[in-house]
């Protein structure tokens, strides 16, 4: 009996859980062209663009999403400022 204890790393699950991105999933460039790829699989340029688009949509809608975002920011701000001591 042999080979019974040898389990391929890909079967353990951690590889799937923490994938190593070598290529941006948005623009398709690899790390040598686009720079470091984030844990979410986006290069810095695409992550930046996505963030700007998010801000634009938030500004454009000014609806539920905007208010929720504003509310969360406000809560975070209050929490960090700790009103009890301020
Ligand atoms: Zn990209």
Topology summary:
Blueprint: H1 14-17, H2 31-34, H3 44-61, H4 64-81
The protein binds zinc ion (ZN).
Secondary-structure content class = mainly alpha
Give the proportion of residues in helices.
Answer: 40-55%
Bound molecules: zinc ion
SSE series: HHHH
List low-pLDDT spans.
14-18
Q: How does the major sheet shape up?
A: none
Report strand %: under 5%
| Overall structural domain count | 1
What is the CA-based Rg, rounded?
21 Å
Helical segment count: 4
Instruction: Tell me the total number of β-strands.
Output: 0
Termini Cα gap = 70 Å
Mean pLDDT: 73
The general outline is elongated
Question: Mind explaining what this structure looks like?
Answer:
It is a single chain. The protein has 86 residues and is mainly α. It has one domain (11-81). The protein contains four helices and no strands. Mean pLDDT is 73; it is low at 14-18. Zinc ion binds at residues 24, 26-27, 29, 34, 42-43, 45-46.
Give a short overview.
With 86 residues, the chain is mostly helical.
Please supply descriptive tags for the structure shown above:
86 residues; mainly alpha; elongated; binds zinc ion
């Amino acid at each position: 009996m042999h080979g019974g204890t040898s389990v391929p790393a890909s079967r353990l699950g951690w590889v799937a859980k923490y994938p190593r991105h070598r290529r941006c999933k948005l623009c398709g460039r690899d790390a040598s062209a686009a720079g470091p790829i984030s844990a979410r699989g986006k290069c810095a340029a695409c992550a930046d663009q996505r963030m700007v688009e998010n801000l634009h949509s938030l500004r454009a809608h000014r609806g539920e999403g905007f208010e929720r975002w504003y509310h969360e920011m406000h809560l975070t701000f209050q929490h960090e400022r700790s009103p009890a001591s301020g």
